[in-house]
Amino acid sequence: MKRDAIREFFRRLAEANPAPTTELEFGTPFQLLVAVVLSAQATDKSVNLATRGLFAAAPTPEEMITLGEEGVADHIKTIGLYRNKAKNVVALSHQLLERHGGEVPADREALEALPGVGRKTANVVLNTVFRQPVMAVDTHIFRVANRTGLAPGKDVLAVEQALMKRVPEEYLLDAHHWLILHGRYVCTARKPRCPECIVRDLCEFRDKTA
Which residues are catalytic? Predict the structure, then answer.
């Protein structure tokens, strides 16, 4: 996709949704961090259903530690890999208290040092909480970037790097959310909703649905 088309692509997404944000429910940076850790291989909807009770019982790192692995697991057992995720949530709560005074750090290296936190999770937190212009590439963004010709890449890191170079600066801060929402509700995996797509004429996908 050419530079002018990319700019128009994001102009339309921005016009349709001027203030995009995550669909994960959270009240604090800590709660968002936990929610994103839990969202690996799970839907935001399923995570929200689980975290409503979890965050009511343990809204802070201290209370999460008090709740313990079994207590966390009881709240999130409807989510895949829940036992390992419960272990990570309690462990990262310990590290936040020991190394960061209980606060979520605004630093990629420090975030990625936390149990259960990889590059994508760190990017979500940096973008959503600290409003840093970074790109968290999940399966939706990977699909949209490749299918549309926006920023093709063989893996998530390649797509992330391509998007960082190709997305116009004025749209970079919110591009992550626009692309996720577009992939989740319009440019879906099995049957993209091309007739409803506001950027279909810019998209380079050859097999558009009728």
Answer: 120, 138
